[in-house]
Amino acid sequence: MIALQIIQPTGTIDMPKKRGELSGFLTLLIVFWPAGLWVIGFLVAQVAQASGCKIWAKGPEECLVFGADVGEYLYPLWSLGFYLLGVFLWVPIGLIILGILRFTIRKA
User: What is the pTM of this model?
Assistant: First the structure.
């Protein structure tokens, strides 16, 4: 069978997908979504600390940003190191889920 190339309006060339395949974006989303959340939390914590807010396990501290106290919302970010362990554990779990999804889609 001859595979035809489809020219997209953007000028890129795309091959037609086989029935029952997961997209690359969905694959990355399943495996790496916790890492993205961790990076967002880390960046928020760094910006808060750079602006003079204290984030620690002692309890919420007053942190004024644009006149609003956001210290209570930043308090859970003190445990980002523990969250990172969960991110590392999720990658193999996400790969197992991805394998199960690919297997069931191919069998369907």
Answer: 0.62
Residue 68 belongs to what domain range? 39-107
Q: What is the pLDDT along the chain (108 residues), one digit of tens a residue?
A: 455 555 555 555 555 455 556 677 878 887 888 888 888 888 888 888 888 888 888 888 888 877 888 888 888 888 888 888 888 888 889 889 888 888 888 876
Confirm whether 5 is domain-assigned: no
Query: Quick check: is 101 in a domain?
Result: yes
Question: Is-contact 56 45, C-beta < 8 A?
Answer: no
In a domain, 53, yes or no: yes
